[in-house]
Amino acid sequence: MHKPRHGFGRAFYFFGALRFSPVFEDNISSDALRKALRGTMFAENIHLFDEVGSTNSTGLEAAQAGASEGSVFIAERQTEGRGRGGNSWHSDRGAIYMSVVLRPTLPANDILVLSLATGLAVSLAVEHVCGVAPDLRWPNDIMLGEKKLGGILCEMNADASRVRHAVVGIGLNVNQGEFPPEIRESATSVFLETGKQWPRPQLIVTLLQALEAEYSPLQRSPAEVIKTCIARFEKRSSYARGKRVKVADEYEGVTNGLDERGFLRVQTATGPRLVISGGVRPV
Ligand code: BTN
Predict the structure, then answer these.
(1) Is 115 in the pocket of ligand 1 (CB under 6 A)?
(2) What is the pLDDT of residue 16?
(3) Domain residue spans of the chain
(4) What atom in ligand 1 is closest to the CA of residue 141?
(5) pTM for the whole thing?
(6) Which of 179-206 are b and which e, b meaning 16 or more Cβ less than 10 Å from the residue's Cβ?
(7) How far is the CA of 89 from the centre of ligand 1 (A)?
(8) Residue 56 CB–ligand 1 contact under 6 Å
(9) Are 130 and 18 in contact (CB under 8 A)?
(10) How far apart are the C-alpha atoms of 205 and 15, rounded to whole Å?
(11) How far apart are CA 138 and CA 119, in angstroms?
């Protein structure tokens, strides 16, 4: 199990990202990632694939077979990329498809915070590297404007008392120039939004450093960090409070913050509701 690092603040991953040369480099190499991630929980077991069914499925199989915490699975493209709610995840070349194995000590009841923390890490990393700050649509859509830039799929193996392992999968649209017609209206990439190509290795390193900066404190002092993580998510998400939304195509209301486990409060015409799963859409 990874030993938590002490004494490194949020600034550490910004520093770490600078180890990449300023020359544009989009070729993902496990050696370069390992070097740039040295000293973090993600440096030791990086698995790179040109093509795979789903990095989450690969990560889940590996975790089941005993893969250590911090193992990372990255693919250039996925043939069976999976999204939340049984949806498929369009996975052509040019994006980041990455899953990490975690062994959180959190009770299964509190696991939503892992998705929220990952959303924060992705949003901070994109802002740091690319200079645009993605919005977070509860629970784990990464948005630029009204379009989806990425998503997080957190899957776990748990019993009533503990989480055996969790696999956190991140899909981030970076350099794609176009999307198939069926998602063209709803999906975007950093390239489409900024008119520039971005170095995926630097994004991957910054993102994993940001994820460790969220995850390690959660492992050390869950009660306190869950609260601050939820508060930070609320601050960074335009969807968390005062937004009129439709929930799972069923009812409408105005969002009213997150509860202590990270579920979304929505005030409807017939009273308050708590959204536990399912997507929210702006009205
Ligand atoms: C969503 O918004 O529906 C979640 C999408 C998650 C996609 C990522 S891509 C890497 C990992 N592997 C998968 O099959 N899914 C996740």
Answers:
(1) no
(2) 47
(3) 5-236, 241-282
(4) 2
(5) 0.91
(6) beeeeeeebbbbbbbeeeebbbbbbbbb
(7) 6
(8) yes
(9) no
(10) 11
(11) 9
Q: Is 188 in the pocket of ligand 1 (CB under 6 A)?
A: no
| DSSP code, position 238 | T
Does the pLDDT value for residue 8 go beyond 80? no
pLDDT digits (tens, 9 = 90+) for 127-183: 999 999 999 999 999 999 999 999 999 999 998 878 999 999 999 999 999 999 999
Q: Is the CB of 54 under 6 A from ligand 1?
A: yes
Is the C-beta atom of 169 inside 6 A of ligand 1? Answer: yes
Q: What is the overall mean pLDDT for the chain?
A: 92
Per-residue confidence at 222, pLDDT binned at 50, 70, 90? very high
Q: For residues 223 and 220, what is the distance between their CA atoms, to the nearest angstrom? A: 9
User: 197 with 175: CB under 8 angstroms?
Assistant: yes
- Domain 241-282 sits in CATH 2.60.120: no
**CATH architecture of the domain with residue range 5-236:** 2-Layer Sandwich (3.30)
CA gap 71, 42 in Å, rounded: 6
Residues 10-38: tens digit of each pLDDT: 444 444 444 554 556 899 999 999 999 99
What is the β-pairing status of strands 141-144 and 135-137? antiparallel
